[in-house]
Amino acid sequence: MSEIDGERIQSSSAALPEELPQAVVGRRSGFSLVWLIPLIALAIGVWLAAKTIAERGPVVKIELRNASGLQAGKTKVKFKDVEIGQVTSIDVSLDLQTVIVTAELKHGSEEYLTEGTEFWVERPRVTASGVSGLETLLSGAYIAIDPIRKGPEKRSFVALDEPPLFTTSEPGSRYLLRSPTLGSLNRGSPVYYRQIQVGQVAGYTLDPDGQGVSVDLFVFAPHDRLVSTSTRFWNASGFDVSLSADGIKMDTQSLISVLIGGVAFDNLETLEATHEKPGPEHVFPLYRNREEAHEKIYLNKEHYLLFFDGSVRGLTIGAPVMLRGITVGQVLDIQLQLDLDALKFQIPVLIEVEPERINLRGDRELLNERGIVEQLVAKGLRGQLKTGSLLTGQLYVELDIHDSEPPDRLTQVAGHLVLPTMPGSLEAITGKVTTVLDRLEAFPIEQIGKELTTTLSGVSEIVNSQSLRQSVEELDRTLVEVHALVARLNTDIAPELAMSLQQTSETLQGLRRMIEEGSPISVELRRALSEVTGAARSLRVLSDYLERHPEALLRGKGGGR
Predict the structure, then answer these.
(1) For residue 263, what pLDDT is reported?
(2) Any alpha helices (H) in 217-345, and if so which ranges?
(3) Where are the transmembrane segments (predicted)?
(4) What one-character DSSP code corresponds to residue 168?
């Protein structure tokens, strides 16, 4: 094998020429087209990267209570059911109290990420006001957004616990109400105007000072134009039951308001009504019922103190203060005090009077409230407890002028003017009954009883005496004889009396025929009456003549000529 290879090498080397040609490397001038391919690829990559960066949307962080139903890379961010982003990651906060969801939104949504923008998770929910989020049963939960364009930019948000009932795109207006208590109101409770639903309660919060509740409600457009500064809102939950002379009256806005509560409003037509559009900072009071809402609001309030010596059982805080049957205020406080100097219990009652309820007539330049009250007290103004209901025993304070009361003056205790009082109606009746009982106790009943016993004994002796028995027997015999006499008179005299009556009737009929019109006696009677009338006339003429000529009695009629 090696021999054969050696022969081949020798034969090939013998065939090569003595000098081989050399390759010469030269430089070409210009750019090679081969380099265009990587440059184009690089430009495309840079362009794609720049486009990706330019089209990348903003990244937001949303703080949630929990991430139930959310998945990174799958959960969408939607606005009006249109996808505008996607959740990229879900992490737990450092304090382990909340969940931080990172989401990337589409390009162009930066201008909507402001302080007013709100996020929430749409899930199936069942509440008293209805059912929502049923579409997420199939598609899964998603994050919804209510964007606000105006305001400073923001990238971190705290999601709402519940979806808002109304978004910013909903036409209408929001109003803030203030109430001491919430009552039966709930989120989603209807708002009524003349028993037509025109809005809903958007939410409620407890005031920072804990003294009341702020209720946020939304009124749909165009009904929001009905709300003005003169509008009164009241709690329309449940039934309004009133008892009057016409019977029992029950009123309710709807069955829904009975179940989940409700708010109603109306506009009052008063002299003070302005009907101006309320500003964003305007707060409406929420009244307890329709009657309270339609009452006039009085700003001027005066406090007075009344001292009562008797029992005030039945008088409660909030009881009305009335002046001749018209409410002018209410009771604010009731206490029990012991006067250590006099060792006497007193009950001070603080009342609130609204002077604006009383219309004034006369010269207002002379108006001095304390001076007027002093004059009224001097004239007999007194406070008195009266029974408002015999069924419940509730009391109220009655202010009135009593002319029979002695003059008194206005005093002041602990910064409050003190109005004089007088015993109440029930207390006065009790006093009168006590006086009557005292008089009865002082009455000599025992002596009168002894005398009455003596008198009855004498009467008993007379009744049981023998002479009285004989008198009674004689009276009985006399009555028997009188009865027999009356029977005989009925038998014997009755026919004769009937005959006499018949004869009298016939006589009267004859007289009637004699004096009838046209009868001879009637004609003669008329003639006689005529002659008597003529004679009377002649006597009157003669009397007049003699009165004028008395000398005619001596000389005769001719002598007077």
Answers:
(1) 92
(2) 255-260, 290-293
(3) 30-50
(4) T
Q: What angle do CA 141, 147, 149 make, to 5 degrees?
A: 165
Q: Fill in the DSSP letter of residue 506.
A: H
Beta strands in 388-536 (DSSP E): 395-401, 411-413, 416-419
Q: Based on C-alpha coordinates, what's the Rg of the chain? A: 59
Among 370, 469, 453, which residue's Cα sits nearest to residue 419? 370
Tokens 């007193």 sit on residue: 346
DSSP reduced 3-state for 107: coil
| Identity of residue 231 | T
Residues contacting residue 120 through CB under 8 Å, at least 6 positions apart = 143, 144, 159, 160, 161, 162, 163, 164
| pLDDT given at position 159 | 92
Largest CA distance in the chain: 239
Selection from 358, 379, 380, 355 nearest residue 369 by Cα: 355
Distance CA 250, CA 242 (A): 7
Peptide bond into 550 cis (omega under 30): no
b/e burial code for range 71-87 (CB count within 10 A of at least 16 → b) = eeeebbbbbeeeebbbb
Round to whole Å and give the CA distance between 386 and 393: 10
What is the secondary structure of 258-283 as a DSSP string? HHH--EEEEE---TT---PPPPTT-E
pLDDT digits (tens, 9 = 90+) for 147-195: 988 888 899 999 998 888 888 888 999 999 998 888 888 888 899 999 8
- Predicted confidence (pLDDT) per residue in 280-292, tens digit: 889 999 988 888 8
3-class state of residue 530 by DSSP? helix
Secondary structure (3-state) at 174: strand
Pairing of strands 76-79, 142-146: parallel
Q: What is the DSSP letter of 170?
A: S
Q: How far is CA 73 from CA 57, 86, 254, 411, in A?
A: 15, 7, 47, 81
Is-above-0.85 flag for pTM?
no
DSSP 8-class letter at 560? G
Write down the H helix ranges in 56-144. 136-139
Phi, psi for 419 (deg, rounded to 5):
-90, 135
Residues facing 515 on adjacent strands: none
Q: Where are the beta strands (DSSP E) in 335-371?
A: 337-339, 344-353
